């Protein structure tokens, strides 16, 4: 058990390559026609996978991607912006919509009238500004969400069991290859059977 751990023949890192529809091959999991090839970083392993399985985290997870991280970051910023803007907009909501105590302060109503009027006006302007800004940012946010959901990752890491399966396949293929070569190059590989016993 104290032996040094043997390094796997290839790393758990695969790049996606697209092939033409006419070159589609069965997905390695579900056998549906697939046009995406996952090619190991050191090119010792590759296989076809459909888009559905590429999105299945029990099969593979995308490796960190800068472009994707930027999109997620801008989504977070937009969401925060929108929350802030909505708070600000609520604070300057036009008088008629948010005031429940219209009947108070009747005494100094006339004195305040002018100043209230101008304050309301600027609040109305602010409200409209926030409204426009919220509309723009909401559009931007939904565009960002679409970009994130349609993002094509360029590199994947396989689920541990899937990766182990790939390595086992590879080792088995290597062993078969070595065996075939041995059979082909060594005439004494099979013991000779007396011909009379074959009949
Ligand atoms: Zn599939």
Automatic annotation (TrEMBL):
<dbReference type="GO" id="GO:0007034">
    <property type="term" value="P:vacuolar transport"/>
</dbReference>
<protein>
    <recommendedName>
        <fullName>VPS4-associated protein 1</fullName>
    </recommendedName>
</protein>
<feature type="compositionally biased region" description="Basic and acidic residues">
    <location>
        <begin position="106"/>
        <end position="124"/>
    </location>
</feature>
<dbReference type="Pfam" id="PF08432">
    <property type="entry name" value="Vfa1"/>
</dbReference>
<dbReference type="GO" id="GO:0005768">
    <property type="term" value="C:endosome"/>
</dbReference>
<feature type="region of interest" description="Disordered">
    <location>
        <begin position="98"/>
        <end position="124"/>
    </location>
</feature>
<dbReference type="InterPro" id="IPR013640">
    <property type="entry name" value="Vfa1"/>
</dbReference>
